[in-house]
Design brief:
Elements (H helix, E strand, L loop, with lengths): L1 H6 L3 H20 L43
Length: 73
């Protein structure tokens, strides 16, 4: 074994570097939440309001009832 280490001097630092990288990846994946899903957060996702404020030209208005079906005449 000593003969192998003397002929390959970068073997031990290479193994230590790989172990450190694996440790950092596992720590990053698990993070502070311990692997829990992000669905349990209190931020409730993206806020949805009534829609954008449209700058419509004169004479054009928004529909009164969007749930009413539009039939072709």
């Amino acid at each position: 074994m000593l003969n192998f280490l003397t002929s390959h001097p970068f073997y031990i630092p290479f193994i230590l570097l790989n172990a450190f990288i694996v440790y950092k990846v596992i720590k990053e994946v698990l993070g502070d939440n311990g692997g829990d899903d992000d669905d349990d957060d209190d931020d409730e996702g993206v806020f949805s309001d009534d829609g954008p404020t449209l700058d419509l030209p004169p004479g054009v208005t928004l529909p009164v009832s969007p749930k009413e079906p539009v039939l072709n005449d």
